[in-house]
Specification:
heterodimer; A: about 325 residues; mainly beta; Methylamine Dehydrogenase, Chain H; 2 domains; 3 helices; elongated; B: about 190 residues; alpha+beta; about 30% helix
Chain lengths: ~325, ~190
């Protein structure tokens, strides 16, 4: 009788021990723990009201580059720079031409029959058959060319290393450089904490330069005088946050700004006044903490995003157009 | 003849004792040398794996946690609107307590020159909650990140945070390379 009591006691003890061990093991699983008082949820910033997203991804093309660098669209063709070459791709995704380069490209621009490619901080000019026409003198050692934009009379080069915009003529002669500074205390100049420094020319022929540290887009005359600007620093959808946004921008055919941001990776459209217009691609479309896609627009207003993380060109078309087709 | 035998036995025992002492000394020296030169392992957070869940503040056996925020200044944008310092809905971009994201005010915001601000972590106040890391990673360059500070860490055999870490970001690393600070430590290629 006495032994039976001891046995029952030991069995109960064993069950309790097993229950405690199992409970402890299960309670320590990451998905079994209670609410965390220190959790900081930024999902609200990643979620975008679907009524604000006016574009839809309709196509995407996988690219063969190891390191894609930049994209531009001209004459109904996509010009994709990366590795040591430029690929000319039709809007349907078919590879039309490959142009071998003398080095790794940093930026690409197409104007008329000329392709301007920045390589080792020098502009290399190719014709559309892929022949190297001329190499302009390289910028200084501290230079870092991040963008090129051309008009009928000038070629503008964004130099993030020196925080300057250089203006050349089409013969490659350096005409002027400016750093965005005005009179003392009036304008700060270009603030570029990390190498994201883009510029472009709008359909009216005006030069716009992004001042990423100030979350501003600034319009300059060819001589480098500030004509107008707008900025919107905010963690909300309507503005830009982080140290260097927008990371890339270009213009839609109607003159609105198309912007690409890093941090919370997203593509948006702002009206010519700077006011937020709509979203092209929400953060959910991109890899979390990924790289800001380079962007380009065709004549129909379709958006081409070079997704560096997924290594593909992603095409976004306006929703109304997609639905009516 | 009898005397020689006795002497030989005594000598044999003496030699045996000497040899034993020598062996013991050698073993102790070797063990000490091994202890000095061998690389131990410690716990550390891989900043590229960390999802800033906040469990480092609540699960560490040390109170406050041995996990602290560290700042890779080379990666910092010195932003005025710092996602790691300011609450998303901050009414002003200043040092007001109501604007600060950090629950313990462990980040000091220091003006450098227009429009740059420096952010300095006060390790004594930091509890490793990763709120600032989440903000910096989501909105900025990700220069703020968590590390286990080894003069505080007990180096438990089983790390209480590692048990619950949802992304398995806490790993055993060599004591000679005990920190994985961003900038020096780069994201491994996939």
């Amino acid at each position: 009788m006495k032994n039976k009591g001891i046995v029952i006691f030991l069995i109960v003890l064993a069950v309790v021990i097993v229950a405690i061990i199992a409970g402890d093991y299960l309670s320590d699983k990451p998905d079994k723990t209670g609410p965390n008082p220190f959790e900081y949820n930024v999902d609200n910033f990643k979620t975008v009201d679907s009524t604000l997203i006016h574009y839809k991804e309709t196509k995407n093309y996988r690219i063969t580059f190891e390191k894609p660098v930049a994209i531009t669209v001209s004459d109904e063709n996509i010009y994709l720079a990366g590795d040591n070459k430029i690929q000319v791709i039709g809007l349907d995704g078919s590879l039309l031409q490959e142009i071998a380069l003398t080095g790794k490209p940093q930026a690409v621009e197409v104007f008329g029959n000329e392709i301007f490619v920045a390589i080792s901080n020098a502009i290399n000019v190719y014709n559309k058959t892929g022949n190297l026409l001329k190499t302009w003198p390289a910028l200084t050692d501290s230079a870092l060319v991040t963008s090129v934009a051309a008009s009928a009379t000038s070629v503008f080069v964004a130099d993030a290393g020196n925080r300057k915009v250089h203006r050349y003529n089409h013969a490659g002669q350096l005409l002027a450089s400016f750093d965005g500074k005005a009179a003392e205390g009036e304008l700060h100049g270009f603030i570029i904490p990390s190498p994201y420094f883009d510029l472009d020319i709008n359909p009216d022929g005006d030069l716009w330069v992004v001042n990423p540290g100030l979350h501003a887009l600034e319009n300059y005359t060819e001589e480098g005088n500030l004509r107008e600007h707008w900025n919107n620093t905010s963690m909300l959808l309507e503005g830009f946050s982080g140290c260097c946004n927008p990371a890339h921008f270009c213009f839609l055919p109607d003159g609105r700004f198309l912007t690409s941001e890093k941090g919370l990776v997203r593509i948006k459209i702002h009206k010519p006044s700077g006011e937020f217009d709509c979203v092209v691609a929400a953060p959910a479309k991109f890899k979390a903490e990924g790289e800001a896609p380079d962007i380009a627009v065709d004549e129909a207003g379709n958006v081409y995003a070079l997704d560096f993380d997924k290594k593909m060109i992603r095409v976004f078309e306006k929703k109304q157009l997609v639905q009516s087709n | 003849m009898e005397t020689n035998k006795t002497q030989n036995r005594r000598k044999f025992i003496q030699n045996g004792v000497r040899l034993s002492l020598l062996l013991s000394l050698g073993t102790v020296s070797a063990a000490a040398l091994r202890r000095v030169t061998a690389d131990d392992y410690v716990w550390q957070i891989d900043p590229f794996e960390c999802t800033q869940c906040g469990r480092c503040a609540t699960e560490c056996v040390k109170k406050p946690s041995a996990v602290k925020c560290v700042h890779a200044y080379a990666l910092c944008g010195y932003c005025d609107l710092c996602g790691g310092y300011l609450k998303p809905g901050a009414i002003a971009r200043d040092t007001g307590a109501e604007n600060q994201l950090c629950p313990t005010a462990a980040i000091e915001r220091r003006f450098i020159e227009e429009p740059y601000f420096e952010y300095i972590i006060n390790e004594d106040l930091c509890i490793g909650c990763a709120k600032c890391v989440k903000g910096c990673t989501s909105f900025g360059n990700g220069s703020l990140h968590l590390q286990i500070i080894h003069d505080i860490c007990d180096n438990c055999n089983e790390c209480a945070i590692a048990r619950v870490c949802p992304s398995n970001a806490i790993k055993r690393v060599k004591a000679s390379e005990a920190y994985m600070v961003k900038g020096d430590f780069k994201k491994p290629k996939a």
